[in-house]
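Model it.
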Amino acid sequence: MRVYNKLVRDRIPDIIAASGKRCAVRVLGDEEYLLSLNQKLGEEVEEYRANPGVEELADLVEVVHAILEFKGITLEQFEQIRREKREVRGGFSRRLFLLHVSD
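Modeled.
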């Protein structure tokens, strides 16, 4: 028996069952769910760093969407926040790398 103790996508138990294996799951409460989402976000960032493909980036965005949904923030609201922040602080298209700041 392999122990995972981690948040998984909704269809993973069905996929495991279809492979002829059995698994046990439990539904998380709000506090545990948000904590697990935050941990999953870190996992996905590390996976993207190790393999910077679009598939890994899509996994990362899926976790971001779940966090937004949990917090009651629509994609439109999130995009507006992102646009406002970009307007004030800019994006990353100029590829600027800050070396140092002096007084």
